[in-house]
Amino acid sequence: MLALPSGERSLQQGDPDKRGPRRSPVWTVSDLEAEVARLEERIADAGGEQKDHRIYATPGSTEHVTPAIRTQDEARELLQPTEVQMQTPGLGVLADLNNATVYDHENYNLTRMLRRALVLQNGTLDMHPGRRIRKGLAVANVCSGGRDLLSDLPMDLLSSYLDRYVEYVSPTFPILEFGELKNTLECFNKKQSASKSEECILRLALAIGAVFPSPDTLLDATIASRLWREVYNEPSFYEESEDTVRILILLAILSLLEDGCGSTWHLVELVVRSCIKLGLHSRTAAKAASTDGASLFWSAYLLDRWVSCTLGLPVSIQNEEFDQKIPSRITENHTQSLPVSLWNMAYVLFQDDDLQQQEDISGGLSDEEAWKPSMVLYNIVSRDLQVAHAARRIVCGGIDSAPKFEDVAISHLQRTEAIVSNGCTLPWTTGLTTFVSVMIRLISFGHPARYRILLRGSAPDPHYIQTALAIVRLICRKHSYLDRLADILENIQKTGTAGDSMPLQ
């Protein structure tokens, strides 16, 4: 409330002596007059008119004071509404205002939110004070000793990690150039300096290559934890840039494979927000017009759909909220078409089109070609997306639509079993989709009741449930928060085929 200058009668009713002590003046009359003049000038610039009904008065003065208002008609004449023709601001103005307020100063803070995402775990969306130091942090704290890991490890071991990343991960997430990674690694070998962002990107690529497709020894997992810790301690990339988006995508991929490296869902949310802040979601933006900008956005989009839909949580950006186009194929080589196929698959996930009708590159390849290193991650992501899509269609269309997705569930389990037989590490998302695939088959054989599935016919093949249980138990070795799902499958395996109903807990 603004305090009136001394000598002026208060506009409030009653005896001023009974209203408590007066506040000291906050604004002077000259300040108020200057503010009113500024507002009128803005109204005039917008095309409106303003009548001069201002009161010019100084403390103790009686000149230029508006006469007292005695009737409602006099008040109505004095307070005539002013018609102001305001120009509607364009979307760009609103976007600039949003960036200047919400993102930078109020709700969005990349440094704080990234720190929180890295200490959370995938098994919960809430912070557990007793579990803030997860396994990755604990191992890194014990083994670090304050030395730079890249200076201690032999170059041939680091090169092998880098080759594995390029061979297994880059075909599905084309966000890094092998030549740039190699140059950064050579700079470390020659004791030359590189930018902080380049160092973080290299460390995360090496960490992913150490654990995917699978760690050969316990040393590989320890090295990955130490590399992740060095990135965790480096705050130089906590401002939005294209390198920041790359680092966040790499952090999200590593958290999918290793427990204790952050909450994937929170990290993916930051990836998408950073893309929006940079304008990569809009094809009219300069950065998004390039192939690198489009690939970054669609890689972030794929991660968002993969993780959010597997968890059954809201996605970070809807299809109608961006106009970035999917890049066309670079060459006829199927390796270059892998991300394009997945991007299309993820894009129709929330549409009415049947995901099974979308192009699946692996379907037209021989078994030998389908299990090349470049196809491993593609198979994992595509099968997870298909099961997530099937689950969503069943929820929307009712349980009677479950039988037509039984082939999706069977194909997912067969492909996952083949990946395990090849000794490949599975992300925690596959543990969830494997469990969902069993539920799809069970619903196809019956209908769910309270805590039970009432079978209409014969139960699914016991070998199917046994295989799914083995896969989930394998994933639980790293991601223990999936133990509950394995317990349910084990209960189904023991009691489900013995009677006419199958308990769920």
From TrEMBL:
A single cellular component GO annotation: nucleus
GO biological process: DNA-templated transcription; positive regulation of transcription by RNA polymerase II
Keyword Iron belongs to the record: no
Xylanolytic transcriptional activator regulatory domain residues: 264-333
GO molecular function: DNA-binding transcription factor activity, RNA polymerase II-specific; sequence-specific DNA binding; zinc ion binding
Region entry Disordered, spans: 1-25
Keywords associated with the record: DNA-binding, Metal-binding, Nucleus, Transcription, Transcription regulation, Zinc
Heme as UniProt keyword: no
Subcellular locations according to the entry: Nucleus
N-terminal signal peptide: none
The name this protein goes by in its record: Xylanolytic transcriptional activator regulatory domain-containing protein
